[in-house]
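[job 0412] stage=complex_fold ligand=hexanoyl-coenzyme A status=START
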Amino acid sequence: MSLENSTSKKHAELLDKKALSLKGGGDKRVDAQHKRGKLTARERISLLLDVGTFEELDPLVLHRSTDFGLENQQYLGDAVVTGYGEVNGRLTFVYAQDFTVLGGSLSEAVANKICKVMDRAMDNGAPIVGLIDSGGARIQEGVDSLSGYGAIFQRNVMASGVIPQISVMMGPAAGGATYSPALTDFIFMVEGLGQMYITGPDVIKAVTGEEISHEDLGGSEAHTVKSGVAHFAEETEESCISKVQKLLSFLPQNNMENPPPASAADPSDRYAESLNKIIPDNPNQPYNMLDVIHTVVDSQDFLQVHQNFAPNILVGLARFEGNPVGIVAQQPDHHAGVLDIDASVKAARFVRFCDAFNIPLVTFIDVPGFLPGSSQEYGGIIRHGAKLIFAYAEATVPKISILTRKAYGGAYIVMSSKNLKGDINYSWPTGQVAVMGAEGAVNIIHRSKIMDSDNPKKLTAELVSEYEGNLMNPYIAASRGMIDDVIEPGETRTKVIKALKMLANKRDNMPPKKHGSIPL
Ligand code: HXC
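[job 0412] stage=complex_fold status=DONE, emitting structure tokens
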């Protein structure tokens, strides 16, 4: 045989193998995947990455198991497609579990492929996106599979705070398999497809007698509304992946970079007259803090994170003059913007993410305090509220706050206050810094006077009005320097932009330590 012939034969053999590996578990299983309403791993990757940028790694990997008939079920690449490419021109690593191969189950070989691509992402300082669709540990491989998960978890933790890690739930994730997504920064779920639970409905029924469907137990509503495990729910795989792309556009590639600037069309000196009238006269009347945020940030563009979980606090990403910031804000339109357990945990996690990735924090405050009640106390509001204090106090990124109305008690301190090293703290004239609301305060400090009075109602009203006049304003805090200035609401955007510019080269260091002991 001539050399040329032998080379062409080898080339043809390679092309055959490549063609085969593209088919995953075969045509029948690809059809079944489509019939389930799901895209294949490769179809998903091509939605995520810029056209023509995907470079696959390890398409020829095979699992090594010979037990339980697995020797007859070897598929090139095994049950995951891995590699790298670009999202909006920026390097991004990806792995997509392939449900058409043994239900996307995690073998030793699959774990090795995922670990390799995670290592490359870390070495090269670029985000990693995992597209999850898997029956979990490959049952036939036993400990090899479990240990594969362990290797992934270890890398998830090492990568935390170094590169952004995103998980997209596009199919099942059961048992310990849920913990890799749980260790990443953001979890997206496709409605009706993504499901996560530690123990499935069958086991629950056997152990506790409770009957519940897969979707009710671990679907997108369960996790984006009730548990807060997941951050985003999207109706389709396409809209989910485009949200992932949008999120990535706000994030730096790694913790050594600043977040990427975008071109800014919105003028930095844009005055917003509408904000001068947004706070209602009645302090108990709500308003929508989203209106404030949309009015102030570039082009009304605010990407809410955890939108449907603990809606009494808003967190998300936006830009000022094209530069990304993290926004934290009370939402007076929901439970008066009170800080409860879920709100504290939601905001603390977001503040720490922003701090890890050099994203400045802009905080809008209107908080009547922590939510009173035995269920909150027994649930550990003290421990969970402390997380938010910890997160703000530890954050070394620029921290700017705008007090729009209430800042009562401990909640005043928690929300990026001067004492927690807030860099710039502004208040609108409607700001009220106090230990508590007027009625509560008057009933404590004037209790006996009110009890002895002939007309307690009238006296209470007078004392409330006196308290409001003397204490419920931002000027005492401003006279102590706890508030840097009282500003016109309409000029908030300009003030924030100037503060961000001033703080662009902020230096702040933590004392040397292994790590703090955040009250988890
Ligand atoms: C091997 C698996 C598998 C697994 C599914 N398959 N899960 N093979 N190991 N874990 C195979 C099926 O045998 C089937 O093969 C194919 O994948 C598709 O699965 P179906 O059951 O037909 O699909 P569907 O009806 O959509 O149900 C999907 C499912 C179900 C809900 C994921 O397969 C399931 O419950 N699987 C087991 C889930 C589980 O309990 N995993 C272990 C979790 S514990 P054929 O050849 O018939 O097409 C865990 C520990 C991690 O992961 C620990 C970390 C520390």
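The CA atoms of residues 203 and 209 lie 9 Å apart.
[job 0412] exit 0
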